[in-house]
Amino acid sequence: MDWQELRKTYPRDPDLPARAHRLAALGRVLGGTQYDAIPNPFGTEYNGAGEYIPLSQRRPSVRTNMCRAVVDDAVSLLFGASHWPTTAATDPTLPGILAQVAAGTALPALMMEAATRGSVGSVAVLVEAVDRRLRFAVHDTLYLTPRWDGAGELSAMTECYKVTGATLAGQGWPVGPDDAAAIFWWQRIWDRADCHVYVPRRVDAGLPTQVDPTRSTHHGLGFVPWVWMANLAAPGVVDGPCTFEAAIDTVIECDYLLSQSGRGLKYSADPRLVIRAGPDPYADGTPASSGGAASALTLPLDGDAKLLEINGDAAGAMRDHYRELRASVMEQIHGNRAQADRLSAPASGRAMEMLYQPLLWLADRMRLSYGEYGLLALYRMVCAFSHAIAGGLRINGRDYAGLDADGLALQWPPYFAGTEADLAQLAQGLDTAVRGGFLSRQTACVILAARAGTPSPHSEWARIGTERPN
Q1: From start to end of 249-291, where are the E strands?
Q2: What is the helix (H) or strand (E) element at residue 381, kind and residue range?
Q3: Which ranges constitute the DSSP H helices of 149-288?
Q4: Do 54 and 45 meet the contact criterion of CB atoms below 8 Å apart?
Q5: CB within 8 A of 452, min separation 6: which ones?
Q6: Among 30, 36, 27, 31, which residue's Cα sits nearest to residue 6?
Q7: Phi/psi of residue 108, each to 5°?
Q8: Within a 10 A sphere around the Cβ of 225, how many other Cβ atoms?
Q9: Residues with Cβ < 8 Å from 131, sequence gap 6 or more?
Q10: How is residue 321 annotated by DSSP?
Q11: Alpha carbon distance 461, 470 (integer Å)
Q12: Rounded to whole angstroms, how far apart are CA atoms 170 and 181?
């Protein structure tokens, strides 16, 4: 079975666009539920009618989830605890304010979730202000439709999906008991001034057209409060390429190979006994075959018996084949091909970067999609909220209005912290460059502070100035 055949087992809603089905299918792989639509477990060989069930119609008993593992590794290098980027801006107080926003809204955890869920192609973040306090929410995009204007700015966002009448009744919509099991369209549209919530409509009646004025809101922000992030793509693209789609076929092969290998090893522990009897195999009441090797049998003179089992050579060949398949998966999606058991001693930061180079290339591309085009856009939107809301934003108990996003930029820490020897060698080189007049002391300070993993490299020079004796 390959990915094309596996997708045919998923239910398909004809009312949804093709991209929604593609994103939903890729989301199954990311969540590890891609085989749940196959009804037969791997250990069931025959159905109730005695017919043999092919392997492609059974759920694998082993799921490697290599696609999710690569995504998790890359996201950890992108927004992990020691990889969260700091900010720099023309206003020296803005980085500290944005750091308070990130801490107060759990923004690092939210961005890790966004980068993980966006690996299927895209993800979107809704920004709302409740009592002048910001709130972020990550949304999958299979039910979202963005629209950009000629300048590349988001001009509208449509959210539309199906919901049961019972769910609508629980939300306070006037739905009668006869329509509790019916399916309705639920839709809302954001633009630069309003959020229009439409009266739900039965699917057989078409999309909603009537706006509910009591549930709609006029935000008056002057911009759409959404940030759209296309995976591994530039802004203005609806869906970027999936991080792991190229390797799904090989991962399916790995899952079935390991499932069949495990099945063979279990049968070797209790092999099937096959008996070749004489002219009348049932003359003495002995059955022609018996499951397992526990029963001792008496055979006629011309009879024969054998144990069907997998030998060590076949098991070793399966392991070698799996290693080749795994290496192919990691090469296709830029995963980590390093073997941890082969690292005999601690390595320097530069050596670790070379060891994990393919994964770092993937993380570099994700820094653009979810950092420069995602997190930085969220920070700029925070500043825009401070202008649009009367009284400004309330952050950590203080009010901030009119925040200036001029010169706002991200500063990324190194992927791997340098060892003491690395930092000493870098410090000596920077000292030589400063003494030779090729580098300023401030630039050298920023370089060394960034390499050492200082939270705010640019502010380190200011601290040195305050600590320097007069």
Answers
A1: 272-276, 289-290
A2: helix 376-388
A3: 165-170, 248-269
A4: no
A5: 417, 418, 423
A6: 36
A7: -60, -45
A8: 20
A9: 394
A10: H
A11: 16
A12: 13
HSE-CB at 27 with a 13 A cutoff on CA atoms is 15
CB of 66 closer than 8 Å to CB of 249? no
The C-alpha atoms of residue 385 and residue 94 are separated, in whole angstroms, by 14
* Structure tokens that stand for 191 in this block: 């633009």
pLDDT in tens, 82-100: 889 989 899 989 999 999 9
> Which one-letter amino acid corresponds to residue 370?
Y
Provide the token pair at 82.
Answer: 């020691």
Give the pLDDT confidence of 403-451 residue by residue, as tens digits: 999 999 998 888 877 677 778 888 899 899 989 988 888 888 878 877 7
Is 434 in a helix, a strand, or coil? Answer: helix
For residues 8-46, one letter each, b for 16 or more C-beta atoms within 10 angstroms of the residue's C-beta and e for the rest, the string is ebeeeeeebeeebbbbbbbbbbbeeebbeebeeebeeee
Phi, psi of 46 (to 5 degrees): -130, 145
C-alpha closest to that of 88 among 379, 440, 368: 379
Smallest Cα–Cα separation from 145: which of 116, 163, 124? Answer: 124
Virtual torsion, Cα 115, 116, 119, 122, nearest 10 deg: -60
Residue 130 near residue 177 (C-beta atoms within 8 A): no
What is the three-class DSSP state of 411? strand
The answer for 144, left when phi > 0, alpha when psi is -120 to 50, beta otherwise, is: beta
Q: Quickly tell me which residue has 């955890």 as its tokens.
A: 109
Contact assessment for residue 414 and residue 451, using Cβ atoms and an 8 Å cutoff: yes
